[in-house]
Amino acid sequence: MQDLEITRPDDWHLHLRDGTALPLTVNAAARVFRRVIVMPNLKPPVLTAAAALAYHSRILASLDPASACEGFEPLMTLYLTDRTDPAEIARAKASAVVHAVKLYPAGATTNSDAGVTDITRVYPALEEMQRLGVPLLVHGEVTDADIDVFDREKVFIDRTLEPLVRDFPGLKIVFEHITTEQAAAFVATGPATLAATITPHHLLYNRNHLLAGAVRPHFFCLPVLKRNTHQDALVAAATGGSPRFFLGTDSAPHARQAKECAAGCAGIFNSHVAIESYAEVFAAQGALHRLEAFASFHGPDFYGLPRNTDRIRLRQEPWTGPDTLSMGSDPVIPMRAGEQLSWRVLAEQVA
Ligand code: DOR
Ligand code: ZN
Prior knowledge:
This protein is α/β, with parallel strands linked by helices and 351 residues long. 33% of the residues lie in helices and 18% in strands.
């Protein structure tokens, strides 16, 4: 049995949804993560600082103080569209609750229909973000029908990200939930203004988990799981110690019936087993000593925020992940349902 104590981590990419989903999503995250970057792909999307502020209040109203960590803080984001007014960026910055702006290429993923159709249309908004120091968070996939779904991230780097990095040398960019060796290499060798988040599911799984022998919809997320060589490159990036890579769970629940159907939604709920799963990956690489930097240092350092000061303790001890969770009246089949996990977070908070 081994104990590991680390500075309390943050989650730099999270979907909390809204309404009756909030008690599940907020409290599962707040159990461990002090700060969470909250994705804006609601229906309708979070387009203004005023909408972000209202959403921020709904999130805090759902917090259960008995289980949440001290000082839980949702860091809000705006959803970028072709028509985002640079003045809205300034209002967001002034709000003090909005910490980033999210770029969804139109049609790339869940609730992205209102996203950006042509990157040059948002250049005025990006200029303002660069000027004000507001990071751009990127869903890095092209949406062209003639580009294979497994190639969409790689093609996005060449067509969109590389020009963006060149044209906005002062803009902080987070390449979200990377899934390929090309993305890991692009970030590792890029300027210091470029970083990436890596999810627990892209570290644990590859496309065989999704497709070998049967279609398993609870492994379907976007960007889609890739072949195992890409998984290996992501594990090397996450556990290798580079400050360009940090924790972002992309935990994104969908009701069971919305995933187990003819056109199942993309998204995996993992908040309740996230830090435990990352610990497993790092332990398997003999890199547990690097978990703290990935989970708790690299993110705040990149965003220019202070590191957390309290700590959590993990214990190497087997337990079984829940088969199902409740999101309002809907069941959710979470990541690692019924599976044995090898690390648990001890309930007590370490001062
Ligand atoms: O798998 C995903 N689910 N990828 C995304 O980009 C969006 C997310 C969601 O909102 O369900
Ligand atoms: Zn996401």
